[in-house]
Amino acid sequence: MARVRGSVRALVVTCAVLAVLVTTACAFPVDGRAIAGPEVSAGVDPSFIGGTNGGEEDRLAAATLRDLEGYWGRELPQVSGGQPFRPLAGYFSVDPRNRAGAANVPCLQNPQEVQGTAFYCPSADIIAWDRGELLPQLRRDFGDSAVVVVLSHEFGHAIQGRLDRTGALRGAPTILLEAQADCYAGVFLRQVRDGGLPDLRTGATGIDGAMGALIGFRDPVGTSPRNAQAHGNAFDRVSSFQDGFDGTPAVCGAIGRDRVFTQQSFRSQADESSGGNLGLSPLIEAMVPDLDRWFGGEVRQRGGQWAPLGTERGPAQCPDADGPVQGQVAWCGPGDGTPAAVHIDTGGTLAADHARIGDYATGTLLASRFGTAALAALNRPTTGAEGGRAALCLAGAYSAAVGTGNSGFALSPGDLDESVTLLLREDDASRGTDGVAAAGTGYERIRVFRAGVTGGTDACLRGV
């Protein structure tokens, strides 16, 4: 995460990605399997899909595509000023292990070209996908919702072409086109969640599963947003998805060239060689003084008093709490002559998450606990959902400000991805001092964190 400011150089990372790439190294299981009604496995005939084997994956794909056609058949005329929806020219299911599998698939010469991917081909107006590896792996790693979000993303590219009658998107950066498609996928998944479609159903776990897939599909850390194949980092992709989920197709269409992306390339050889990560102890030593500086400044600007916070290594348990209710990092207020401090359990799951997810998983927890300290200094609630939500939002506000002002370091590429990965997995960063979590879903935790990133401290104190 933290990097000492100094000389930097740009690094362009190329990545051969056709449309979406499953990166198993950064995937983790998310329970999102409750996406489809019984019609998906029993009643949807996939025979309209070219090359289908009639199996379970293609039945899920068929249900998704039929619901997409029905949804956009109703919605596109509303957002295009009356233009009717024109169905796609075709859909193709390919098993890359079958050498003859791509014989009749437009835009493919070899079935291996679709291995691990799904794609929309604008010249032929078709969607094709890897049935042999991609769809089974999506279902295995993230649940059925992952198949739905991938296909609705590709369908979103078809919608782009149908709406862009003036050619405004011609020559647009790839990352911008991908953000719009992620947004359109979010719009569709909201319809699925709300029960507005005939074949697909899901709940909160399904939406979290879809977001888990988007995180798994992020660009390799350090990819330049100007890369011709850039699809976006996890934070940017999830942000676009949530914009659509909470908005409308018009919101997605309004994503333009002024869109701000957080994805960045490595800017120093040291950062590149470390993968943008510090060890657990070096991170704490580098980050705590900056947290004190930033949160102290925010509190003083609002008329509060701030005393530098000490840190304690050991059990993250406050004297007046029944166990480590705040998780692996806890803010403990002053009492019985002891000053307020942040208690950090450097063993157990904190160290494991630090190693597996990345250093800013720890950084997000630290920032949320300093956020709790700031709330206490401003006489704001620190308990319950209100306290947890405000602390998590303040962690986002701090994350957006790192590297500005008098900060001695900045976030590395991938750090915000580590935040959303942590927040999708667990609720520690959203807990109040009484252990009550602000939200029960990864979707909501990420939404609150993003509100701080985009709105700053004042937005957090107003309530999110």
- Secondary structure class reads mainly alpha
Query: In what range is the share of β-strand residues?
Result: 5-15%
Q: Give a short account of the largest sheet.
A: 3 strands, mixed
Distance from first to last alpha carbon: 27 Å
Q: How many individual helices?
A: 15
Strand order of the largest sheet: 2-4-3
Helix content: 40-55%
Gross geometry:
elongated
Secondary-structure element series: EHHEEEHHHHHHHHEEEHHHEHH
Total DSSP E strands: 8
Give the averaged pLDDT, no decimals.
85
Q: Segments where pLDDT lies below 50 for 5+ residues?
A: 1-42
Please tell me how large the radius of gyration is: 23 Å
In short:
By secondary structure, the chain is mostly helical. It is built from 15 helices and eight strands.
Topology of this structure?
Elements: E1 3-4, H1 39-42, H2 56-79, E2 90-94, E3 118-121, E4 126-130, H3 134-142, H4 144-163, H5 174-193, H6 204-216, H7 234-245, H8 249-253, H9 269-274, H10 280-301, E5 310-313, E6 329-332, E7 341-344, H11 348-356, H12 359-377, H13 384-401, E8 409-410, H14 415-425, H15 442-462
Parallel strand pairs: 2-4, 5-7
Antiparallel strand pairs: 1-8, 3-4, 6-7
Helix pairs in contact: 2-4, 3-4, 4-5, 4-6, 5-7, 6-7, 6-14, 10-12, 11-12, 12-13, 12-14, 13-15, 14-15
